[in-house]
Amino acid sequence: MAAEKLTTARLIQILVVMAVLIAAFVWRTIDYSSSKNTLTCTMLADKCQVSLKGEKVHIQYDKQGDTGGSVAVFSPTTPSPLQVNVDSDNSVLIAHKVVEMGNKRAYIYALPDSVKYGAAHKFILHIDQDQIEINF
After folding, report:
1. pTM to 2 decimals?
2. Short-list 56, 53, 110, 46, CA closest to 81
């Protein structure tokens, strides 16, 4: 094969194959979407847990008085800010504080007074590539 002369037909065949391969790589790069799991966590007695990659994530709601509250997330991986859907048009992002509890970490989200919780509200938490929807 190495001793063969490069003919016009052979050159066109090589260029067509190269064009198809380049197009396939470009298409896969543009079309790429990361795999994101959406998990649902339903609060029972203000607590719930889900399993992510073999690790348990515990979520707990602590009511503080008549107006405020906080959400504590016990996770081996650092979560993102908590997204709270206030109504159909508005959502609030709430940052967390880290509290060390022995060899575990708790991520505490202090909810402002304007944030209500109930059956009509849901909180969304992202950990790594996974999304946890917290329902009350």
Report:
1. 0.62
2. 110
